């Protein structure tokens, strides 16, 4: 039993170190983000979203749940309501805490868009992004 207890204690230390590292990164890294727009994530607001290319966040009072990019933000806004490909995001959207919002920044260049999306995902670590689904949620 002593070996199992040592293993559990070692695992708890690893988990705590990962938590601390994530918290340090989130709280100390500067994020260059000011949205070009924000709307409540309900289909009646679709006309308020531009049909341009950009990077977007889906968020509520829990924080940023998902970061994505699209060549057509309005179309992607509608798809998030109709398509259920991302199980965690669908679950989060069906049980919002406060108002679920869709915020975006217009970024026309595809390489810049991809780089900005990667930067936001790495910094914010949204729990519903597929890139993070293979890692334990700590």
Chart the SSEs and their pairings.
Elements: H1 2-28, E1 37-40, E2 54-60, E3 63-70, H2 73-82, H3 87-94, E4 101-106, H4 110-124
Antiparallel strand pairs: 1-4, 2-3, 2-4
Any overview of this molecule?
- The structure is a single chain.
- This protein is 43% helix and 18% strand.
- Strands 1-4-2-3 form a 4-stranded antiparallel beta sheet, sandwiched between helices.
- The protein has 138 residues and is α+β, with helices and mostly antiparallel strands.
- The protein is built from 4 helices and 4 strands; from the N terminus they run H-E-E-E-H-H-E-H.
In terms of DSSP E residues, the strand content is 15-25%
Low-confidence stretches: 133-138
Indicate the radius of gyration in whole angstroms.
18 Å
Mean pLDDT score: 83
Globally, the shape reads elongated
The helical percent reads 40-55%
């Amino acid at each position: 039993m002593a070996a199992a207890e040592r293993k559990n204690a070692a695992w708890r230390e690893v988990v705590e170190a990962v938590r601390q590292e994530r918290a340090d990164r989130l709280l100390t890294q500067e994020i260059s983000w000011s949205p070009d727009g924000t709307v409540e994530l309900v289909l009646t607001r679709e006309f308020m979203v531009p049909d341009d290319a950009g990077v977007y966040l889906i968020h509520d009072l829990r924080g940023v749940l998902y970061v994505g990019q699209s060549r057509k933000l309005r179309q992607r806004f509608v798809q998030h309501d109709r398509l259920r490909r991302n199980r965690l995001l669908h679950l989060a959207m069906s049980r919002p805490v406060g108002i679920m919002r869709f915020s975006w920044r217009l970024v026309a260049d595809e390489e810049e868009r991809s780089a900005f999306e990667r930067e936001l995902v790495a910094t914010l670590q949204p729990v519903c992004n597929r890139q993070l689904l293979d890692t334990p949620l700590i």
